[in-house]
Design goal:
globular; binds nicotinamide-adenine-dinucleotide; seven-stranded mixed sheet; Aldehyde Dehydrogenase, Chain A, domain 1; 20 strands; six-stranded mixed sheet; alpha/beta
């Protein structure tokens, strides 16, 4: 089904149809209230912040409330997983697992509420106001940014939203969250959960709409002090421009082109399974998906064969299909984009070892695709495809592998498979990425900071770094 939406005049509300990408059928509708709705939501958030409704609670009370929210998320994981799996098309078990991961995220952050404090410094300043050496006590205060605007993509609606809401609430902010227009259905339940747990109304606000309407209005709003964005590198650059008006603090979690390096001495069954899962999970619609696999020549044929066999065995289907591994792409637009890369590869005489076609059924399903015989200067090796498409490339030695891995404008994650511990750690230092996996892929933990090098982003989420991203530091000097 072609997805068409009427464009409203400025100031007018418009409706956006929401689809099930596994059937192409409409499953809902939201209203894009544009700049006016954003302004109202920011107003509610600002008023709640100024009234101290949330930050006025004791830290341990906030910890208790956030822990309660984590429990409620777990209790409603089935419901939220079912909504996201239908709306994103991902396997139901995968969608529910992401909700449990989101609950862990809230629980981890909840613990920090009681551990936010500055530092004190004893000072002596020579030649002060009186010309004499003065004794001073300095200390720092950690203060929340007031209203944080959060803009998220469609590929993991609950988890990515919670990755912003949890640290922002821990820091004491009020939040306005704009979900992706393709996947807005679970976000209102998140607001409901936080309110039920005890977060005062007005602190968490959801606003729906397109990127160029509601998203742009939020990014440019003069009363939003911080913008936290997850999405494409292209839109990330627009966010920076929009944020310039009031010089908002900006955090960007952007695209990736994760290189995976497999050496002759790797534990091959694990490396093959890791590389295959690392790209095909969520049909390749993950910022950390390993779309470039570099393999040392001694094991190249085995790895190509292994990834191709795994690709062939994967079961594709929608939320209602039994025993599904992966689902469809999110939309007709994304399908066209991914098939465009595959067609270009065919025209460039790239070898399609496995897949390379759309499934003959309803829904935006693309067969997991394995390519060989690519050149490093091809578009598919440079740009994020965001689909189940992997290129496998041979290399001779470490130098060549590192050079190819680092030859990208993006630097979100990288993986190394080797039994040589010194090489593993040497490469961890040399690879230009915010996350490096050694003999693992897709590993994550709420305590580990996550962010992109190069054009994969600004700042970090997760860990205490993620909470500090929503805080400001004030220095106070006291003459003694
Ligand atoms: P997108 O950039 O098109 O949209 C993301 C969000 O930004 C949506 O809510 C959209 O409505 C909004 N938006 C679009 N234009 C806007 C504008 N002009 N002003 C303000 N907001 C605007 O990305 P997408 O297609 O939804 O998601 C896929 C992208 O997200 C991929 O590039 C992927 O790598 C990235 N991603 C990154 C991470 C990470 O943590 N680094 C995680 C998941 C996804």
């Amino acid at each position: 089904m072609e997805q068409v939406t009427k464009i409203a005049a400025p100031g007018e509300s418009q409706t956006i149809a929401v689809y099930d990408p596994s059937t192409e059928e409409q499953i809902g509708e939201i209203t894009d209230g544009g700049a006016r709705a954003v302004d109202e939501a920011v107003g509610r958030a600002r008023d709640a912040f100024k009234a101290g409704l949330w930050i006025g609670k004791t830290p341990s009370e906030r910890t208790r409330i956030l822990n309660r929210a984590a429990e409620l998320l777990e209790q409603r994981a089935g419901e939220l997983g079912a909504i996201d799996s239908r709306n994103v098309g991902m396997a139901r078990a995968h969608a529910s697992n992401l909700v449990f991961a989101a609950a862990e995220q809230v629980r981890y952050n909840a613990g920090w509420c009681t551990k936010i404090y500055g530092k004190s410094v004893d000072m002596k300043m020579a030649g002060g106001i009186t010309g004499e050496t003065a004794d001073l006590l300095g200390y720092t205060l950690k203060e929340p940014v007031s209203v944080a605007g959060c803009i998220v993509p469609w590929n993991g609606p609950v988890l990515v939203a919670i990755t912003k809401l949890a640290p922002a609430l821990t820091a004491g902010c009020s939040v306005v969250l704009k979900p992706a227009e393709e996947t807005p259905l679970s976000a209102p339940i998140l607001e409901e959960i936080f309110v039920e747990a005890g977060v005062p109304e007005g602190v968490v606000n959801i606003v729906n709409g397109y990127g160029h309407t509601a998203g742009a209005a939020l990014a440019g709003h003069p009363e939003v002090e911080k913008i936290a964005f997850t999405g494409s590198t292209e839109v990330g650059k627009l966010i920076v421009q929009a944020a310039a008006g009031n010089l908002k603090k900006v955090m960007l979690e952007l695209g990736g082109k994760t290189p995976v390096l497999i050496f002759n001495d790797a534990d091959l069954p694990k490396a093959i399974a890791g590389a295959a899962l690392g790209i095909f999970i969520n049909s390749g619609q993950g910022c950390i998906c390993g779309s470039r696999v570099y393999v040392q020549r001694g094991v190249y044929d085995q790895v190509v064969e292994g990834i191709a066999q795994t690709a062939k065995a994967l079961r594709l289907g929608g939320p209602d299909d039994e025993n599904v591994d992966i689902g469809p792409l999110i939309s007709a637009k994304q399908l066209k984009r991914v098939l465009g890369f595959i067609d270009e590869a065919k025209r460039d005489d790239v070898e399609i070892v496995q897949g390379g076609y759309r499934l003959d059924r309803s829904g935006y399903f693309v067969a997991p695709t394995v390519l060989t015989g690519v050149r490093e200067d091809m578009r598919l090796m440079k740009e994020e495809i965001f689909g189940p498409v992997v290129a496998v490339v041979p290399f001779d030695d470490e130098e060549e592998a590192v050079a190819m891995a680092n030859a990208s404008d993006l630097g979100l994650a990288a993986a190394v498979w080797t039994q040589d511990i010194t090489r593993a750690h040497r490469l961890a230092k040399r690879l230009e990425a915010g996350t490096v996996w050694i003999n693992s892929q897709l590993a994550w933990d709420p305590a580990m900071p996550f962010g992109g090098y190069k054009q994969s982003g600004w700042g970090q989420e997760y860990g205490i770094e993620g909470v500090e991203a929503y805080m400001k530091t004030k220095s106070v000097y006291t003459g003694l």
